[in-house]
Amino acid sequence: MATDAQQACFEAGIKFGSLYHQFAGTPLSPDSAASLETAMVEAIENQPFCTSVTVDIDEAALAEAADDHGYVELTGRFMEVRMRVEYEGVVVHTEMVMEDGYPLMRIVDLNDSA
Amino acid sequence: MATDAQQACFEAGIKFGSLYHQFAGTPLSPDSAASLETAMVEAIENQPFCTSVTVDIDEAALAEAADDHGYVELTGRFMEVRMRVEYEGVVVHTEMVMEDGYPLMRIVDLNDSA
Amino acid sequence: MATDAQQACFEAGIKFGSLYHQFAGTPLSPDSAASLETAMVEAIENQPFCTSVTVDIDEAALAEAADDHGYVELTGRFMEVRMRVEYEGVVVHTEMVMEDGYPLMRIVDLNDSA
Amino acid sequence: MATDAQQACFEAGIKFGSLYHQFAGTPLSPDSAASLETAMVEAIENQPFCTSVTVDIDEAALAEAADDHGYVELTGRFMEVRMRVEYEGVVVHTEMVMEDGYPLMRIVDLNDSA
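^ Those are the sequences you sent over. The predicted structure of the assembly is below.
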């Protein structure tokens, strides 16, 4: 059987995959960045065990990329994401940041107080 | 060659397909409905020729469906959408409403003042 | 009221928006390109009035882009799409090709035999 | 620091969230089920540490649901998914099945030979 800490990590992974693949491709401009950040946070916080999400869209990168057509499609290069998942007393903090042009999702901290 | 009115209708269709298939599946609860409405509106208004979008999530239907698990996945049964597209002076109004359990997208009005 | 030709163009637009925003973001490699092409074609051909779809993934562009991590996420730069929509005797041919780094969707031919 | 087993579970979760939210909403009929199964498998197997995916679309449930309009939109009720993820010698088997009308993702087996 999986431990509570392993289950917590599994749940944390589900939230990242969900957030990324639900919203990748969304038309995005500097004017619409704030509303998309809020919607992503509130959508994923609906999922079980997900106690907190933050999404930061990089407005400088976005403004430059949107210069040609007024908007872009959302990909990992335009955002950083942090989440807190809690499962049976185990708290996992995770983040998604760009590394070498690839949106890397990773466990930052795991606190097994159980 | 397509006429401006035909082009306007083509553009209007693109926006509906985009909105529906970008956001279908999003985790949705009564608490997150307002932020998702706003994000959908602002995302699609980024697209060319799309001058106005309204999205109304049916909070009664949503509250009932979300009763079991606290949230649902967005599908057409939970929302109505209206759009105004303008292309070279032609204005098209479209809407998406449920009909017989199917999200029907249709042209409501076309005003070719050109 | 919209004409049959205008309705046909509206339907054609819906299919393009659907295809693009359903599948944008899909993990894609040279080895998986063929199965994704087939699935996109068959999925969109389910939609009303859509009689034919072709999707061509640019395997050279894909191979180069996938060189770093083994795969990419699908965006418009990796594919060309053609569709045939028929509505009440009106046949519309449309295509999506890249132009200036932007996936341009357009009406190629409209044959109103009605 | 997270253990290899916890990392393996995190990676397994990412794949499930990705698969579900990338493909939910896809137009689906009995005729297109096989090609969508194959595309989902090959797309997710592109992701790191994902050594095997199986997707089984429930053709009986699909045929009944598609009776009205000829097709449906993919949701969890139409499919079962199994995956094998391997991370630094730890092998995790996971599955997604319907339980009480909700697509439940869970760890079935974890084999830490490291």
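The beta strands of chain D are 27-28, 50-57, 72-73, 79-87, 90-99, 102-112. Residues 4 and 88 of chain D are 6 Å apart (CA to CA).

Shout if you want it in another format.
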